[in-house]
Design the sequence.
């Protein structure tokens, strides 16, 4: 189960980075991205269990 969540999280992260690359021309590390990633991972964990 954790493996599926990890794969889904990686796919979402890559999609997020690609969108930033398309929109801004580069990936930009931001605090809000880290907070959203933490919330997303917690949500994925509880939704798949």
Sequence:
């Amino acid at each position: 189960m954790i493996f599926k969540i990890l794969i889904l999280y990686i796919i979402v992260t890559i999609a997020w980075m690609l969108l930033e690359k398309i929109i801004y021309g580069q990936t930009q590390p931001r605090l809000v991205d880290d907070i959203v990633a933490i919330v997303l991972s917690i949500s994925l964990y509880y939704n798949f269990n």
The chain has a mean pLDDT of 84. The CA atoms of residues 18 and 24 lie 10 Å apart. The radius of gyration is 12 Å. DSSP finds two helices and no strands in the chain.
